[in-house]
Amino acid sequence: MVDPALAPALPPEVGAHALEMASTLLQVGAFVVIFLAARLLAEVLVRLQLPTILGELLAGVLIGSSGLRLILPPEAHGVVNQAWLQLIGRLADVPSDQVALLYANSQSILQAVATIGLFALLFLTGLESELDELVAVGGQAASVALAGVLLPFAAGTAGLIALFQVELIPAVFAGASMTATSIGITASVFSELSMLRTREGQIVLGAAVLDDILGIVILAVVVSLASGAELSVGPIVRLLLAAALFVIAALALSRTAAPLFDAVLDRLKASGGVVVAAFVVLMSCCFAATAVGLEAALGAFAAGLILSNSRHSEAIHTAVQPLVSLFATIFFVLIGAGMDLSVLNPADPANRSGLVVAAFLLVVAIAGKVASGWLFLSGEPTNRLVVGLGMMPRGEVGLIFLGLGTAAHLLTPALEAAILLMVIGTTFLAPVLLKLVLSGGEALRDSQAGAG
Amino acid sequence: MVDPALAPALPPEVGAHALEMASTLLQVGAFVVIFLAARLLAEVLVRLQLPTILGELLAGVLIGSSGLRLILPPEAHGVVNQAWLQLIGRLADVPSDQVALLYANSQSILQAVATIGLFALLFLTGLESELDELVAVGGQAASVALAGVLLPFAAGTAGLIALFQVELIPAVFAGASMTATSIGITASVFSELSMLRTREGQIVLGAAVLDDILGIVILAVVVSLASGAELSVGPIVRLLLAAALFVIAALALSRTAAPLFDAVLDRLKASGGVVVAAFVVLMSCCFAATAVGLEAALGAFAAGLILSNSRHSEAIHTAVQPLVSLFATIFFVLIGAGMDLSVLNPADPANRSGLVVAAFLLVVAIAGKVASGWLFLSGEPTNRLVVGLGMMPRGEVGLIFLGLGTAAHLLTPALEAAILLMVIGTTFLAPVLLKLVLSGGEALRDSQAGAG
User: Fold this and answer.
1) Domain ranges of chain A
2) Which of chain B's residues have a Cβ under 8 Å away from the Cβ of A279?
3) Using CA atoms, how far apart are residues B170 and B168, in angstroms rounded to an integer?
4) Greatest Cα-to-Cα distance within chain B, rounded to the nearest angstrom
5) Nearest-5° angle of CA A126, CA A129, CA A134?
6) Which of A326, A285, A283, A55 is nearest to A185 (CA)?
7) Which residue, A316, B144, B255, B299, has fewest beta-carbon neighbours within 10 Å?
């Protein structure tokens, strides 16, 4: 598993076998560290009656760039824990600076496995969705998505310019970073609270999917702004058309393709057919989504939706669930590991201006999404606060925006720190607030319903 | 998932988003191609009443370096299918020569996922093993392993020198490459034929484990020979001691650790606990095995053995099985993909001398392992032919030896081709012959038993 591209950088006296050994120790060790930390904190959080995903994010913080620096995603600043590299180096008989060369490869493999976990999670989310319910709430979901994009974007951008004299392009960029919703975190929280099949769950899910599509469009606009290129409308229209086509195709296949899938599955004789066949559909949809310019994760959700009417959906669920337990955990731990909490420290004067901007962004980010929960018409009783809070976590999508802005040198350090804090705040607060609101009980739900 | 090491090689006009897209398409596309090909051929093989693993190996040949060249492991010669790279490039709007730069990374990720599959397979194999039976046949397994290493090595090395005037070091290397047994292929075939828990299955499994340990020692000797270094006994003695310690520790933990594991599991409250806890044990054992200088895969087997007495072993089995169906499949497909069958073509004069040597090596490789089935004492009726054939497939271990020899420029092209043919022959013949012998029925079994 040694990346051959790294080999020339290593002196010949370190044998291939020793490098292979160091590489294996790094990867296997990372799994042990991630699973141990995630499980430990998930158990603590469950006992506090909070969602386990919060424990997984915190586990990432603990072992990531803000903590032990054992797991350091490529985009994170900072230096890998030297004691860890030395331990691996001593065990494999490889100098620790050469272990450091292998480290990047081990992280890119973790990232790939985490992505499989995200796909599996969204696939299961699609599988558990009620297609008819999802279509029925389509209008509401679209309103929530659109409002949840426009409100934080407009208020954030305008506020940064008016209150903090930020220039136009960085302000637009920061505003754009507030439009995202982490569909992975949202799906995970609602699933854990057994809320996925409720009306609120399906509205949030539909809105998060549409938000992801809007996010791609916004990203395209912002990237072309950032590169200083003329903003051309053509590619954006093409992207929107592709997205519409994809959604229509996914809905059509959800109504028609399951019987075909079942017929194929019934003819399979070799063992393990269910999970492999499901994965072929899953990965094909991811490929199709990426090919038309959308996120592969949307394809994973569509694949689940397509198979949700299969007679074998229960068997598929049983087979894919362990993949989620293992690899989606890695996904959430890596999100936490990429967050550098040192920007939170008010004792450092360099952080203070960032903290003030951050407080503003956080308020706008929360208020904008929560408000979106009220901006749709509904004849049915709906807990609008739950919808708004469900749209709140920015998670990995916010971090992707931040990474792009940093790479393009668009942001000042203070603004960078402020966006990071906004992402951290919304990501950690969403599961907590959702849990509080939901255990606040039926009384609240009823009063909200009256307002709906 | 773009390897940051590659980024500087790419001109800035290709955006990070397009590269990300190409990278995702390569990876997701590879999964689709692998699963489709493997499933298709597995279904054909099942209908021919042959083991599905043979279908997975053939699928690898079909899409790998001998076929479509869609999947090309790093060690394989040849050029990736250009139409594939162009398709990805066109979809992602990235020049296809830059897609080629991303390709190596996608293959190293496939390799990593395949390794997780191998670990999961050997973990399940350990989980399904009868510890007491394994210990009971320990003596026989040791005889089989030792004979199966010594016979092919001695006959192969001596024959190459005497009959083909091969020099000492290449001859020793070729002889060493014949000592391996692919524990993955062996475990998979026996499991599919429901033979794992039989006496023959447990002898072969025990012998394959010991063979793997001996293989590490032989590898250490051959590598130090290849590097021209003085052969020192110290490291080899240390390796043997570490191996003995590891086996003793694994056996001791198999008898004692399961209740502790169960007690911990009973206290877990967050969902997904069983599979995550099992993976912590699995990866910890892989880490320990690698740290003492053994193959990580042996650790995976030991982890399964340790948990085989757990009250939750059935739940663990259910949760880990889909991982095997998915990722061990990738492992076997990659073995097939790494095999260059063009050396088989007798029309090419360059192949002819290799083919003659190959025929010799193949006969020695088969005869040596089959003979090892008779070289143990047994009071119980045992089908010795099944034991011998079970030790036959060289699979990925043979390919690893070959890769090392090629990298060290130890082998002539003819000898390289001959070793590859020996590996291909034993790997493909073993499942076929085992199936034939076993469906040859009880008559044969009884006559063997009489001789036992």
Assistant:
1) 4-112, 131-451
2) 31, 35, 326
3) 6
4) 75
5) 110
6) A55
7) B255
Tokens of A6: 């790294």
Which class for B156: exposed (0-12), middle (13-18), buried (19 or more C-beta within 10 A)? Answer: buried
What is the reported pTM? Answer: 0.89
Q: Please tell me the CATH code under which domain B132-326+350-451 is placed.
A: 1.20.1530.20
Q: Is A166 within 8 Å of chain B by CB?
A: no
Are B163 and B360 contacting, i.e. CB atoms less than 8 angstroms apart? yes
What number is the average pLDDT over the span B350-373? 91
Spatial distance between the Cα atoms of B141 and B147, rounded to a whole number of angstroms: 10
Cβ atoms < 10 Å from Cβ of B8: 6
pLDDT tens per residue across span B48-107? 888 888 899 999 999 998 899 999 987 777 789 999 999 999 999 899 889 999 999 999
Which among A21, A279, A319 has CB closest to B290? A21
Distance (Å) of CA B210 to CA A148, B13, B138, B204, B217: 61, 55, 10, 10, 11
Does residue A412 sit at the B interface (CB-CB below 8 Å)? Answer: no
Alpha carbons B157 and A294: distance in angstroms, whole number: 57
Whether B105 and chain A come into contact, CB under 8 Å, resolves to yes
Tally of residues, chain B: 452
**More confidently predicted of A35 and B132:** A35
Residue B270 CB neighbours (<10 A): 21
- What is the chain A residue with the closest CA to B26? A287
Q: Which of residues 113-142 of A touch B (CB under 8 A)?
A: 113, 115-116
A400 conformational bin, left if phi > 0, alpha if psi -120 to 50, beta if neither = alpha
Q: CA–CA separation, A294 vs A122, rounded Å?
A: 15
Query: In CATH, what number does A131-451 get?
Result: 1.20.1530.20
